[in-house]
Amino acid sequence: MTDRQFLWGLSNGIIVLAVAGVFWLGWGFGPHLGNGGWILPAVFTVVVYGTCGAIVLLAVRLRHRVGFKRAELKYGDERQRAESHKITVGFRRIAITQGVLVALGVLLCFCLGHEDLVAPWIALIVSLHFIPLGRIFHVQAYKFVGIVGCAISIAAFSPAFGVDRLIFLGGAMGLLLWLSAVYLVRRADRIGAKAVSEPWNV
Length: 202
What we know:
Blueprint: H1 3-29, H2 39-66, H3 78-111, H4 118-137, H5 140-156, H6 165-186, H7 188-196
């Protein structure tokens, strides 16, 4: 794994975190914005999409700075191609497992008449998937996102939240993902230097 390739992949992860933050904030606060006329939804939209855009822009600048292209993956040496293949296979397995668990959990929630628990379940599974991703991509911050996200998700299962469940969950998850994305941007070079010095036995 070269530092250029790692930082290119990290920039992709940062973009995903930024967009996912919009999803959770929108899911959490969106249903409550219509009660305040058009001003509140407009301000929310500007702030949320503006913040997401700023994070994405920083990730794109990081990608341009390292100058790595996806096509370069085909021209690495045998070891690099083997590493890339293992990473791809591992990522696909995690993604498929995540999708199956989300689907089963959502189905169970509807069957039991607990549609209000769909969002916490999805948040829990999504958070869990960050933990093995941290191992595969050698990004310790992903493990932190996974652990904190699990704590937020489990807390959101509590009946004490009631109608405020989505606000708490969406707000907490959105901020967690955005703050993590900003941290990765600011520490990208240090994270990359540490990662490429480690053995990549995925």
